[in-house]
């Protein structure tokens, strides 16, 4: 891949990453509830999910997803169910307490990484987005090398952006204010996630 082509690919991936959606809602909620480590783990998991989707698309497998209605519907409904579960979980969450037990950090990190990965990987709109984007860069002889470049570009940009979001939210007065408003953030995030789950199904 030529450098100018890679720059164009990276620019579009960056614009996609910063677009508001369920991913941003999840990063904000997990950072507020679990602190910096929880938010960063969620961001890294999300980046991994995006990267895997990018690799699948680059190798032509996402075409199968979009052209096979049954498989596409399965992914769509599973993704909607997961978004709905996250939304209900946020709506039922209790206000965040000031103390966070050290023993729970590892568990929180794994949970955050899993949630971030699933929100990305179970989003069929990513397949459509990457097909539209990669159609400008993928050729008949595109192999693992080019696919890996696209995977690292899309997943890396996504992960770096959301890690920065988590780091900014977890420092100084920003996090203090967010923790004070955590109950409201939970409710808003829950409604957003439920709305997006409904939108996926419809």
TrEMBL record:
It is a multi-pass membrane protein. InterPro entries: LeuE-type (IPR001123). The chain crosses the membrane at residues 41-65, 116-137, 149-170. It is found in: Cell membrane. Keywords: Cell membrane, Membrane, Transmembrane, Transmembrane helix. One of its GO terms (cellular component) is plasma membrane. GO terms for molecular function: amino acid transmembrane transporter activity. It comes from the Bacteria. It holds the Pfam family LysE. This is Lysine transporter LysE. It comes from Aeromonas lusitana.
